[in-house]
Amino acid sequence: MSLQRLRVGIIGVQPGRSWAARSHIPALQALSDTFEITGIANTGRASAEAAAAETGIARAFDNAAELIASPDVDIVTVAVKVPPHFELVQAAVAAGKHVYCEWPLGNGLAEAAEMAALARAKGIIGVVGTQAPFAPEIQYLKHLIADGFVGDVVSTTIVAWGGALQGGGTIPDKKTYGYLLDRANGATLLTIPVGHTLSALTSVLGAVNAISAVLATRRPTARVLDTQEVLPATAPDQVLVSGVLASGAPLSLHFRGGAPRDDDGLFWEINGTNGDIRISGPSGHVQMVQLSLRGVQGEERVFHPVDVPQSYRTGWPEDVEAGNVARVYAAMAHDLRHGTRTTPRFEDATVLHHIVDAIERAAESGRTILL
């Protein structure tokens, strides 16, 4: 591919609230030497025109099919809710377009595996939006572990909050958050924040070999704050996982549905033979919150801040969401132009979907699942 700017068409932009509006558009605008946003598509022309006008994008397409078919689009970004992912990705791949699809890639393992197979057969690059491993803190954490900061990893433990629920079992509005309550839609506490966190964990500590799990829905209803209606909830709001990494180190994870009562929504500790590291943040959505590192080594008894070198941040958007997404796009451009493989691909998403699927099967059967 030439060094001309890569032309991106984005499907799914709602100004002021959607993930694409908050992260993809500012990320691509920060990389304007490399990318050009050709246009956007929503469910209808009027919606796309309104979004384009508000975000300063020049073109609104009539629908997703028109965007995908356009000769002015090199990369199709799929940033809609999970259920339409398969249809949109399938169409983009068939049109020979490279794809950036947000995580979860599919509504379940089978869809993800088929999308990976389609992209492989067509010879296109399919990138999945697991941005957490690109966060400066996770990148530096990976370096610290590889460099022996903790010695040999003995175990790792994660306790975090996340998902659609807020305090008291509420959601802000039905249109944005209501579908997250239905397990059948494939966008749950397990698939989204746990999935993103597992992408970070495996990038730092390696593959997961065995899984036992408990999934529970302790809040079977949720009250919608803008309408005051009460909706049923079938998605789990408690995810407990115990497992073993390929290294032999035990893994313990507990995600709780909802927001913490303070700003301490993530506790991740990596315990080693020579030290420990703790990763913290305001929630378990590690791909979209500011993280911090603290560590202790040898005979020390007090954890101290571990500062990420400024070189990990220089040249990137300061906003956490846009910065992490920009790093993925930059890596995608490098892969397209130089034939490298630095981005999380559809095949990697399938591996992550395998872990999520194993958690579901382990919870249902009460057995340990080997991966």
Automatic annotation (TrEMBL):
InterPro entries according to UniProt: Gal80p-like_C (IPR055080), Gfo/Idh/MocA-like_OxRdtase_N (IPR000683), Gfo/Idh/MocA_oxidoreduct (IPR051317), NAD(P)-bd_dom_sf (IPR036291)
Gal80p-like C-terminal domain segment(s): 136-281
Domain Gfo/Idh/MocA-like oxidoreductase N-terminal span(s) in chain numbering:
6-127
The family database entries (SUPFAM superfamilies) matched by this protein are listed as: Glyceraldehyde-3-phosphate dehydrogenase-like, C-terminal domain, NAD(P)-binding Rossmann-fold domains
> Which Pfam families does the UniProt record give?
Gal80p_C-like, GFO_IDH_MocA
GO MF annotations in UniProt: nucleotide binding
Q: Which PANTHER family match?
A: CONSERVED EXPRESSED OXIDOREDUCTASE (EUROFUNG), GALACTOSE_LACTOSE METABOLISM REGULATORY PROTEIN GAL80
Q: What is this protein called?
A: Gfo/Idh/MocA family oxidoreductase
* Protein source organism: Sphingomonas liriopis
